Structure prediction request, 103 residues.
Amino acid sequence: MPKITFIQRDGSRNEIDAPDGVSLLRLAHDNDIDLEGACGGSLACATCHLVIDEAWYDKLPPKSTAEEDMLDLAFSLTETSRLGCQIKVSDELDGMVVSLPEI
Prediction:
């Protein structure tokens, strides 16, 4: 089972066993990570904004136009920002590190 590490805003790290196919948003919610996701993962907001560790960013599928449009609304946007609802866990992402952005 892939492991994903979330770095919280306070700097603490949570390494989580992640089932294949689950979104990072769902994984965060299921493990008490403080990631909002106001639209429930329907790509209608930017509240599940995550910052992907640079070493992992290029291993993700490209952003859709809709995701790029929603990210324009996010606070603390970075070059490796993505929406957690749009990233699905796979074996290829085992070990990925993501951070919650500053708000």
About this structure: Strands lie at 3-7, 13-17, 49-52, 81-83, 97-99. Residues 24-30 form the longest helix (7 residues). Helices lie at 24-30, 54-57, 65-71. The chain has a mean pLDDT of 97.
